[in-house]
Amino acid sequence: MTTTARHVNWDFAERVLDAVLPGSTAYNPDRMTGIPLDAWRPFDLTVRDDDAIEDDFLTYCDDLEGPLIVVNSTSFYPDQGPYFVDASNLRDFVKAFDTRVRDYFMWTDVLVVSPATGFVVVVQDDGYIVKVRGNAVTAVPGDVGDKA
Fold first, then answer.
1. Cα distances (Å, whole numbers) of residue 126 to 5, 46, 88
2. SS3 (DSSP) at 121
3. How far is residue 95's CA from residue 101's CA, in Å, rounded to a whole number?
4. Radius of gyration (Cα) for the chain, nearest Å?
5. What single-letter DSSP state applies at residue 141?
6. Cα gap 26→13, rounded to integer Å
């Protein structure tokens, strides 16, 4: 019996998500709490130009600060995992993503967590976007690093 490899950063990223949106168990909109159904807005991912979609998405992220956890379809590859990007570099990260990773950034669900502000931005591949504010966190519950 084999198990699917999981990137080592997932546990940390999920603890951060749970600290920001308590009760959230995964970077999957169906397993995240604290997102009201009426907060979702239409966000077309099929008809518009890729650059326009990215620009629209980035406007939702304008007020994010500090280190961000960014998850998209490639994050689930065992050799990728969640991305850690400073908010000041998010635009460059998104715009150059297809060159670096050779995949379109907005291919499917995209999730961005800003622990410093408590904001979470979620894009669902079925054409919706939401931005919610959870808890701003400066420390993540749980042990980080080696125990002495």
1. 27, 9, 28
2. strand
3. 11
4. 15
5. S
6. 9
Q: In what order do the strands lie in the sheet with 110-114?
A: 41-42, 128-133, 119-124, 110-114, 67-71, 83-86
Q: Give which of 12, 5, 3, 1 is closest to 77, Cα–Cα.
A: 5
How far, in Å, are 4, 43, 73, 98, 146 from residue 106 at the CA level? 24, 11, 8, 10, 35
DSSP secondary structure string for all residues of 24-92: --SSSGGG--S--GGG-EE--SSSS-HHHHHHHHHHHTTT--SEEEEE-GGGGSTTT--EEEEGGGHHH
Please report how many Cα atoms fall inside a 13 Å half-sphere around the Cα of residue 86, on the Cβ side: 2
For 66-81, the pLDDT digits (tens) are 999 999 999 988 888 8
Q: Among the listed ranges 12-16, 23-27, 51-55, 143-147, which one has the minimum average pLDDT value?
A: 143-147
